[in-house]
Structure formats: structure tokens, C-alpha cells
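In the laboratory, one determines a bound structure by crystallizing the protein with its ligand and collecting diffraction data. In a computational setting the workflow is compressed into a single prediction: the sequence and the ligand go in, and a structural description comes out. We illustrate the idea with alpha-D-glucopyranose.
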Amino acid sequence: MRKILFVSSEVHPLIKTGGLADVAGSLPLALAELDQEVRVIIPKYHALKLGDDVEYRCTVRVDNKDVNIFETRLPDSNVIVWLVDYPDYFGHPGNPYTDEFGNAWLDSAERFSLFCRVAVEVSQNRAFLDWKADIVHCNDWQSGLVPALLILEPNRPATVFTIHNMAYQGLFSQAEYVALNLPGQLWHPGALEFHEMLSFIKGGIACADHITTVSPNYALEIQTAEYGYGLEGLLHHRHHELNGIINGIDVDIWNPETDTRIPQNYSVKTLAKKAVNKAALQKQYSLPEDPDIPLIGLIGRLVDQKGIDLVIDCLDHIVEHPVQFVLLGSGDKGFEHRLKNLSYLFPDKIAVRIGYNEDLAHLIEAGSDMFLMPSRFEPCGLNQLYSQRYGTLPIVRRTGGLADTVVDAMPESIADKTATGFVFEEASIGAMLETIKRALLLYTNKRAWTQLQKNAMRKDFSWQKSAEQYLNLYNYL
Ligand code: ADP
Ligand code: GLC
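The predicted complex, in C-alpha cell form:
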């Protein structure tokens, strides 16, 4: 049995802005099922959704600050979550990265460097918790200082750094480095320095014993200039210590047979009942309640990564077909505005909800016929996995984890029953439109469509295999 400290800036259901929270809320459970002793550590944000089991554990002094550590558990489990409490940094309303009005926190470097320092103290059993980690598993830039700080320590645990997204790096000025009082030995291009800037993500990439990404394909992509953001050379240099492990999903939360957030449960054997959810979704979005018109859904952060510009440009053309489109998301104000405008122009076909809403996300997965995800890059992507499990066929671009998890409907894959969606290559309106038309055409063939839904719903997206891969990695390290 290994003692694993899982360091993350968000964890579902306590706080979530994206897929990292889903992973941090489900992979530790899968590792615990494999008899590992996993502890999760996150900041104690003002916005955390906590139950009544929260207990104060200890106070640890780091960088001249007294930081409290509280303890709770992931729901219905024995997985302990340690909450790093420093109200000056984490006690304000907002999410982990922005204030309540969507402005990025100005003190992110201070916040996450303190968080990393506390994680180091905890992992080394210097926080009065009577627990020393064998493995520290860090995730994304917010935890990037941990592997760097640990290389300076004797008798340290082994470190794994998982890249969920190369686009966010935690870049700050050299002056900030000095102000943070970080060890001078780490200011060099083999550790935290990146072109005379402090790079949190580089701490993880350069200093962790092993690096993983959340899909095998993305592990290759980030070794190229197109996806590497200037770190492709270092990543390639470390390719022997870099691999991709595909994300699993929480198959209890995302299960159309038992999901309590949708009006009608269904399974691969009772697929016809899915129509009840479609009607409910059309009603929610004030669209004509027509069971036959194909309904395309999209949920996501409205940012460049997700190809939202392509969607906007495409919608003008899509509406020429008998189709409905529903969207749930928030992010870039320009995208939000343009999407809203389109919904005013085509009220019978396009409906948009700006915001974050987990109940509605489940209804969209259950009620749509197709799920659109034309990402420009996608380290793994979870929505295409959820949608397959709900028999909602994904239309995706062949990139990152989308390429690894969706099988394009081609004559051979349709014949051998492996097809689960629709895939296009080029990030262009033409390519996307062609593929949507291909999906709309197949939709008219009810038998073929139902078979694809069954293929998708029968796929195993549980954590089982991937958690075993992480465990093998921990054992090896
Ligand atoms: P990313 O982490 O890049 O945002 P993923 O596909 O890995 O993309 O995960 C996104 C997660 O966040 C999914 O669980 C998705 O349902 C959820 N999500 C994104 N936007 C919203 C929203 N507006 N409302 C509810 N859930 C959302
Ligand atoms: C990131 C990526 C997404 C991935 C998620 C969880 O936010 O953008 O592709 O699924 O992390 O690993």
C-alpha cells in the first residue's frame, strides 16, 4: 500500500471549474479501491461546498505565515481531503482563478506558492498530521512548485506531475520570484526559470520524477511546437519519463440508468426512453418540442481552446438544416455576446445559456442526440466520454484525447460496430460543417443510429484500467 498525496487546485464536488475537478474527485477514489492510501490537498476557498464533517487538524508555519489545515472526506468515501486555510488568500468569494466578477486574481503567484509550500510540509510529515507521503501526485501549474521544492530535500517522496493543460502555465516576473522568497538554487533554466520568467508549470515538467498527460495522443502533441508553448524541447528531452494515461470518468455520477438529475433514466436496453429527456431539454430551452428534429448539444468553457469561434461561424450554415442547437457555458465575453445574438436571430433553432449549471449539464448529455466538441486542442476532454455513455454521439476534431476516445463512423467501423461518433481533421468551418452534415444524414437512418448509440454506451470509460496504470507508475517510482 502506498501513501499518495494528490495535489490539486480543484476537486469535485467541493469546487469545480473544469475537468481537473472531475479527475481529482474520481481518480483518488479509484486508487482507494485499489487499496492505496490517498489524501487529497486543496486550498480552503470561500466557495467550497462543504458538509458538516469538516474538522480543524493543525496549524503549520510556512514562509512566516500561520496556515491552518482542516480535514473533510470525499462524499461516501474514506478518502481524506486536507484543506489549506489562509483566509487572506483563499477567503474571498470567487473561483480558484478569478474573483466573483471573472477577473483573474492578482495574487495567484502568492496563493499557489503558499499552497505548494504547505503541500511540501504535509508530504514530508512536518505538519503535525503524522503522515508521510511515498508519492506526491501534482496536477497542473498550481502545484508545479512542489516537485521543484522537493528536489532540494533529502528523503523526499517520489513525484509525479500530470499535465491537464499546457495552455495555462503560471508565468510571473523575476521580481515576483524574489518577492515570493523562493530558493535561489531553483532560479535556472533547468528548474523554475523560463526565459527570465518564473514558470510554475516548468517546476513540474523539469523537476518531477515522472510526467504524465491525460491522453497518450496529447503526450506526443506537446512535444511539438504547435502544442508545446516553448516547452516542447524540454518535454521531448524527458520523453522517457513522459507518458499519457487516459482519464476515466466517475461512472456512478455519470450514469444514465441512475442519474438523479435527469427526468428519465434509461439504459442501452431502454434507449427509447431517452426521448423524454430530449423533450425536457427542448422545453428548458424554449425550443419547439419536436422528437424527430436532431438536437446538438455543447457544454464547455467558452475559450479559444474549445473551438467556439468555429462553432459561431458554422451556426449560420447549420441553421439551413432541420436541426436544433443548445449551448451551456461561460467564459470569453465576446463569445458569450455573439452566441446570444445568434440565439435571438434564430430562436427556433439556437438556444444559449450563459453560466455554470451542473443539473443542466446532465440534462444536455441525456437529452441531446449529438454532442459538439470541435476543440483546437484537448488534453483529454471528458464531455465526449460522458456523451458516449449517454448515447449522445460526439462530433469532435481529431486532436488530443478526442482522437483517442471517439471512433469515427466510417463504413468499416459501422460494420464492425466500433463506431461511436464523428471525427474531423482540420480546424475549419468547411471540415466541421461536412462532418455535421454526415452526422445529420446518418441520423435519418434510425437503425444505424441506434447501433452507434449502443456501441458508444457499451464502451468502458471507468477508471479501473487507468488507475492501475497510475499504480504501476507509483510502484515503479
Ligand atoms: P476542460 O477541463 O478543458 O474544461 P473537460 O471536458 O475535461 O474540459 O471537462 C469539463 C467539465 O466541466 C465537464 O464535467 C463539463 O460538464 C463541465 N462544465 C464545463 N462548463 C460547464 C458549465 N457551464 N456548466 C456545467 N458544467 C460545465
Ligand atoms: C483540462 C483539459 C481537458 C481535460 C481536463 C481533465 O482542463 O482541458 O481536456 O479533460 O483537464 O484532465
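The chain has 19 helices and 18 strands. Keep in mind that any predicted model is a hypothesis to be tested, not a measurement.
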